[in-house]
Amino acid sequence: MVFLWSFLVGGLICVIGQLLLDVFKLNPGQTLSILVVSGAILNSFGLYERLIDFAGAGATVPITSFGNSLVQGAMHEAEKHGLIGVVTGMFEVTSSGISAAIIFGMIGAIFFKPKG
């Protein structure tokens, strides 16, 4: 049953993103920003953790989880270091994902030629 809920919740998040692109004619940057901010807002109300408990990877894999991670890192470090912890906490929690995106993007650029 966990797999079904994971599939449905992850699929619903993707459907929302696709609707933002197709129906509201937003560009990909706007759509990603809305989804990241949505994850952050859900976290601030304590709802995203419940969604993760319910749907597992269906909630942790989509881009909304990035917003969730940003808020969690910022809040955790803010408790320890105050205002400066807000900034450092966001970078500490998300640095591995951002680093991987940069590295894999560079590898892709080395091995593939863009069409144009």
Automatic annotation (TrEMBL):
<keyword id="KW-1133">Transmembrane helix</keyword>
<dbReference type="InterPro" id="IPR014204">
    <property type="entry name" value="Spore_V_AE"/>
</dbReference>
<dbReference type="InterPro" id="IPR005562">
    <property type="entry name" value="SpoVA"/>
</dbReference>
<keyword id="KW-0472">Membrane</keyword>
<keyword id="KW-0812">Transmembrane</keyword>
<protein>
    <submittedName>
        <fullName>Stage V sporulation protein AE</fullName>
    </submittedName>
</protein>
<dbReference type="Pfam" id="PF03862">
    <property type="entry name" value="SpoVAC_SpoVAEB"/>
</dbReference>
<feature type="transmembrane region" description="Helical">
    <location>
        <begin position="6"/>
        <end position="24"/>
    </location>
</feature>
<feature type="transmembrane region" description="Helical">
    <location>
        <begin position="83"/>
        <end position="112"/>
    </location>
</feature>
